[in-house]
Amino acid sequence: MAGLKENIYKQAPLWMQNLMISAYGIYWKRHRYGKHFFKSLPEFIEREKYNPAQWEEWQTERLRKLLIHAFDTVPFYHEKYSTAGLTRKDLKNLTLEDLPRLPFLEKDELRKFGTTGLLSSKREKGTFLSSSGSTGTPVRIYFTKRFHQTWNAAYEARVRRWASVNYKMSRAMIGGRRIIPDAHAKPPYYRYNYVEKQVYFSAYHLSPGTVDNYVEGLWKHRPEYLVGYAMSIYLWAGYISDKSLKTPPLKAVLTSSEKLTPPMRRTIEEAFGTKVYDAYSGVEACGLISENRYGELLFSPDTGILEVLDENGRQVSPGETGEVVLTGLLNFDQPLIRYRIGDRVTLAADQASKAGVHMPVIEEIEGRIEDVVTGPDGRQMVRFHALTYDLPGIKALQLVQHALDNFELRILKDDDYPPENEQIIKKRLFSQLGPVKVRFIYPDELEQTANGKIKAVISKLKK
To answer: Considering the entire predicted model, what is its pTM?
Structure first.
């Protein structure tokens, strides 16, 4: 919701907010589920029977089709491949082993050309969805109805189905959408989407003092499974355990977005009394890693081609860790070919799946672990990507907490950065935490982790 609709929503009573969210649910239900979803779902399920030779044949055929399409209709790739000396004939005959001949697609290139030169001239009607952009400018991914429904079929087959739930079941969700705009809002800290039988919990109001209301929401609506940010669900589970609260039975908890550590998994499973199924993809939707009932993380080869590369750009061996490079095989309207998504994984030493499927087995998704921010009133959160949304001149942002009410915002800016950004960012931060002290600094570089990642959130509070 944006503009006038957003302002109306903010002022509306609770019952009307629920109706507005439900109306929004009608749009998304139609966008996610339709003829392409129902056509693709059995195909994803059937391909789980593929042997390695069948997967290679399927991926090779799909890759060649994608490359010819990109060369003919996407200006960015036509220029990039021509400059690299690649012809249409080369692309038509490319094998999976030949992938390293293609140049990478960098994240900065996706940010710069994603809404222009990376779009196909033959694209279908669609809309842009933005990533969290946790440390800076988000990427914008073009979703047509066909692509969106096909991707949801993959998610249904390899995430929900593997967790023994489905899209028809009622669900609880805790995510980044600002369903409760006021930082000092009163309970309830959830809203209800009648159309999709979804109770949506705020990720921005969790604290020891509010957790009872979150649990009340579960009992009131009795969702069959829970889905959301790994860290938010973990924090929620910790408060439940600390206060010995009882939750209604759930069939599964589906986590994503942040690294799920073994202690986080144990805390969540003990609090909610069910198994956790982790997954990894991102808004780019060019590859899906999901967990099966044996606890294995498997990459779905019909969502994309996975390369795990060492520092020299060579494919690592089973048991080794490397950088993730993805070639999406579902989105022909904004192709992402050899995309450096910015994450790392470890391939399992034993690539034989207990499920008997022939898919790459992932030992660990390195991902990003952010520090937790604690507000003056005790609420805890890790998500601050909305601070920079749609603001010009920001390459990256890092939020540092020095005290409960004292924050530092480190911003890498470029020449287009306007001074008024500070007031907008400060207002957005206040909307999440309430009035706090804020200092802006503009360094030449931001603090990184040992593996070279920029942490979006750093807490200097004593643990």
So the answer is: 0.86
